[in-house]
Each structure stands twice: as structure tokens, then as C-alpha cells.
Amino acid sequence: MCAIEAGRLGVKVLILDWAKNVGKKILVSGGGKCNFTNLNISPENYISQDPDFCRYALEAFTPKDFLRLTAKHGIEYFEKKSGQLFCAGGSEEILSMLTKERKKAGVKIILDCNITGISRDDDYLIDTSVGKFCSRALVIATGGKSYPQLGASGFAYIVAENFGIGVTKTKPALAPLVFDGPEKRLFRDLSGLAIDAEVECGAVSFRDSILFTHRGLSGPAILQISSYWEPGESIAINCFPGEDLKKLLSANAHRKMLLSNFLANHLPKRFAEAFVSAYLENRPLNSYTKREFDDLSQKLCCWKIQPTGTEGFAKAEATLGGIDTLELSSKTMESKKIRGLYFIGEAVDLTGHLGGYNLQWAWSSGATAGRAIASIYD
User: Fold this and answer.
1) 3-state class of 357 per DSSP?
2) Per-residue b/e over 169-185, b at no fewer than 16 CB within 10 Å?
3) Is the Cβ–Cβ distance between 144 and 318 less than 8 Å?
4) Is the four-CA dihedral 15, 17, 21, 25 of positive or negative sign?
5) What digits encode the pLDDT tens for the residues 174-197?
6) Which of 26, 17, 153 is nearest to 87 (CA)?
7) At a CB cut-off of 8 Å and minimum separation 6, what does 138 contact?
8) CB 187 within 8 Å of CB 311
């Protein structure tokens, strides 16, 4: 996006990419359907030491701007939920669109190109495995550490530190949570099962599905909360979101039905039976006292468990932290210390929620930097 915007405005642009093929992360996005944006974009959807940093770029290049681009290329899409937009065809359509726009803008690209050194005098000198290149402006758009199997690394942070630019602490974001002990055994037995739930950590909560795995928990609600979870903290899961379980139990207090069978009318049977076996007594409903029903409700609506960690950068969909936003101009993405040096996208300390927010930040920060670069060549 940065190269396209700068090229479109008349700048001579070269992309240097270590990969043999472009857009690997785009291709895997959204399960191959590319969740390319979200209609409900705001700074509140981002985590950063300064979440407001993204406001200018998101307003300068909006989801509607990206939709105008997809419409131009005849890309059909659908809204999954909460404003999340996916390609009706597949992720290849977005990659093809960007490739066509890149060529139209006259932007050249060199693949399978390893960067061996970057220095600066008046201009930037980039040493690579295919030769040396000189430029007035240099943009680092190499992402964070998530998906190392696709080539992700801390390259952007190394460049920043070499130029004396601050980098905040990084950690996996939007990552599955892992557990030990009885929870691990329980989740392993339930592996592959999903339930609707509300997951809370501190003052933050998300309602969506959670997925039981061999190592712990995943699914949208868990991925969202993982960005806020810190080691040593517990999370609370409400298995009856939006329902008054106490009232429901009270209305059925006269019945002889076993608790597990009753819960199986509202939750997947496999989960209901496993949860009762692990945490509760499986008795007829009419044998419980009101206080016992209250305790039951507490366990099911505020199920507190403590993860031992996440599945790390290998399974994380994003990286939390990165290039300190205090070091960058929010209106240009340029370093405040080093003229002509720009950092965009996931490399920056700005991480979106699940649902197209991170790709929109990539488009918006890229377009903002591209326009700013064009202005210095005027």
C-alpha cells in the first residue's frame, strides 16, 4: 500500500522482499478468505501505549477507501459479523489486486533479497544479497514476530535500535492459551468442541466462541483476551452469556432431571457432562438447595481458570508492542529523529483486535507513509 500510494504520486519506488513469493500472510488471512477490513474501525479497537496514535491514519485511509479499491477490481465480499469483511472468492483476490495496483504505479519489486546492512549519510544505503541500493527515503514494513514459519522476525526492531529508535516490549497477541493440570486434561478430552461464551480478564471482556484444544483454549474470544492476559493472571469464562442461570435453575428446581441432562439442553452435551464431572455433583435438580444453585451459577457463569501461557509467536496472529509510537509522527509514520526513515504496519506498537483491524492498519499506515514520502520528493 505504501509503495502503491507513493508510486501513484510519482515517486520511483523499489520493494525489497526476502520471500520468494509475495503476500504469504495475506493468503492465510481469514482462513484463506482474507478478513481485509472491518466497518467499525476506531482507536478503541487497538492496543498500544498510545492507542490514539492510529487515529490520523485510519481517518486518512478508511475502510471505505479500501472498498473503493476492491470495487474497482470487481472483488465481491461478505460481512461475517460485527463489520468483518471477507472475500467471497479468496485471499488471492486481494493479493492480485495489490499486485496489479503495484504494477500500474510503476513500482518494482525484487524477491528473494536478503538485507545485509543499512547505513545512512545524506541518503540510505541498503546492502543486499543482490546488490547495493541508494534511496532518499526508507520504509520498514516487515511486520512483527508472529508467524515465523512465514518468515516473520524481529528485523524491524533491529533496524530501529540500530538507529537509536525505541522499541516497546513485544509479546504474542491473538494467541491460543495453554494450561497444565486438571484443566489441560479436561480440555484435551473436549478437543475440537466449541461453545459460545463471554471471556473476561481484568476490566476487559469479549463474547464469542471458545474452542477446546489438546493444549488448552482457542477460538475468537480466547484470542481476543490473550492480548490483554499477563502471566499469573486468571481469566473468567461465562458459559451462559446473556442468560440468567439462577432464574433458569430456580424455574426448574422441582424437576427430577439430572443436572448434566438439564445443562445439556443449553450447552453441548459433551461439555455439560465433562464440566459436571470435573467441578459439580450430578444430582437431580430437585435435590439442590437455593444456595447450591447459587454456587452452581457462580461456577458456570464465572469459571475462573489460570493459563500457564500462550502458544507463542508460532500460533499468534499478531505481535503486541513494537516501534515506540512516541518516536514516530502519527501524520507521516516518519521517525522524529531520523529524517526519511518510516515504520508502518505491525512493526509499530499498535495491535488491533481480531476481525480485520490489523490489515486495515496495514493499509492505512501504508497509504499515510506513501503520501508523506511523495511530498518530500515534490
Assistant:
1) helix
2) ebbbbbbbbbbeeebbe
3) yes
4) negative
5) 999 999 999 999 999 999 999 999
6) 26
7) 118, 120, 124, 126, 340, 341, 342
8) no
Q: Which amino acid is at 13?
A: V
Residues 154, 288 within the same domain: no
Last residue of a domain, one of 310, 328, 349: 310
Residue 177: closest CA among 307, 59, 283, 285: 307
- Same domain for 43 and 134, yes or no, is yes
Q: For residues 63 and 165, state if they share a domain.
A: yes
User: Could you tell me the residue range of the domain that residue 287 belongs to?
Assistant: 177-310
The one-letter code for the residue type at 329 is S
Q: Mind listing the pLDDT tens digit for each residue in 210-255?
A: 999 999 999 999 999 999 999 999 999 999 999 999 999 999 999 9
Longest dimension (CA), the chain: 83
3-state helix, strand, coil in the chain (%, to 5): 40, 25, 40
Which residues, 6+ apart, have CB-to-CB distance to 375 below 8 Å?
none
Residues whose CB is less than 8 angstroms from the CB of residue 185 and which lie 6 or more positions away in sequence, other chains included = none
* Radius of gyration for the alpha carbons in the chain, expressed in angstroms and rounded: 24
